[in-house]
Amino acid sequence: MGTSELMTAADVRLMQGMAQRVVATSPELVNADASFGGLAWNWGKGHAGDGASWPRRLWFSGEDLVAWGWAQLPRQVKRNDGSVKDITGAYLAYQVHPGHAGLVDEVIDWYDTTAAGLERTVLPSAADESGLARWAAHGYEPDPDALGDTGSWTQLNERDLVDVEQPVLPAGFRFRTADEAGPEAAVQAHLHAWTPTAYSAESYQGVRETAGYRGDLHILVEAPDGTMASSTIMWLDEVNKTAEFEPVGTHPGYRRRGLGRALLLHSMQLARAAGATHMTVACLGAPGHPKARGLYYSVGFREMSRDAPLIKAKTAR
């Protein structure tokens, strides 16, 4: 049975629990939007501003969530540089438990009804062959723009937390946690790295209230002048003893100094101390986006899975 209404924090906790069950048996089927940390980050930073355009539907078997769809519908996004971005199409984040694979048709039907008349995009896992066949049967095709040399498809990378190198920071820089540095510093670190962005103090408050957030696993690099030059949040899945970086960013004025590498190495050591034995991080996978991928590869990550961007024209049902 499925239920449909707007997304809530309780829904996110259910989805995270399902993600943990899928990771335990079929990690290659988890894309970045349906991971334990990805769900928390996307919900936390955006629900205050965009939640009214986020319908969802949940499917249960007994008390267990076995499939869900989270539609993100047209809206205006106001960014910190004063610009406004108009989102005119629909996007679906979703997950279907491999033991209930037949539900993907219901997820697609719900999405087509919810986003009728709009251009629709979705990012299934490229490893989900049966799911991809069902999306194709419903009229979804590979998205040529997303698949181009500078396209927006993502890959999920992994490494075990053994033999983690010691981090080396330039003189005068130091590691901080968000608990130590405080909310204002944590927000500024993100704004420095990602401007223009819709992120704000309200966004960070939402992130802090999300299940799985820990201020001691939100790590920053402070420059000698007090600027928060680099930062990341780690999301610890205690059930599977894995942790996920989401997001990772560095101030443009402090790049190419080794801060990102040092941040990742230091953070992985903290994740291991917190009980994680495995680490993941997502990045853009297209050839025209080599920088983040190269950084992650340089500290031991390798591709684990990737998504397969699909699109359906707005004239289709």
SS element count, helices: 9
Q: How big is the Rg?
A: 19 Å
- Element string (H = helix, E = strand): EHHEEEEEHEHEEEHHHEEEHEHEE
**What shape does the CA trace take?**
globular
Give me the secondary-structure category: alpha+beta
Percent of residues in beta strands: 25-35%
Largest sheet geometry:
7 strands, mixed
Proportion in helices: 25-40%
Mean pLDDT: 95
User: How many beta-strand segments?
Assistant: 16
Strand order of the largest sheet: 1-2-3-6-7-16-8
What layout of secondary structure does this protein have?
Layout: E1 2-6, H1 9-25, H2 36-50, E2 55-61, E3 64-72, E4 75-78, E5 84-87, E6 90-96, H3 104-114, E7 120-122, H4 129-137, E8 141-142, E9 154-160, E10 174-177, H5 178-181, H6 183-194, H7 201-208, E11 218-222, E12 228-237, E13 242-250, H8 259-273, E14 278-284, H9 290-298, E15 302-306, E16 310-312
Parallel strand pairs: 6-7, 13-14
Antiparallel strand pairs: 1-2, 2-3, 3-6, 4-5, 7-16, 8-16, 9-14, 9-15, 10-11, 11-12, 12-13
Helix pairs in contact: 1-2, 2-7
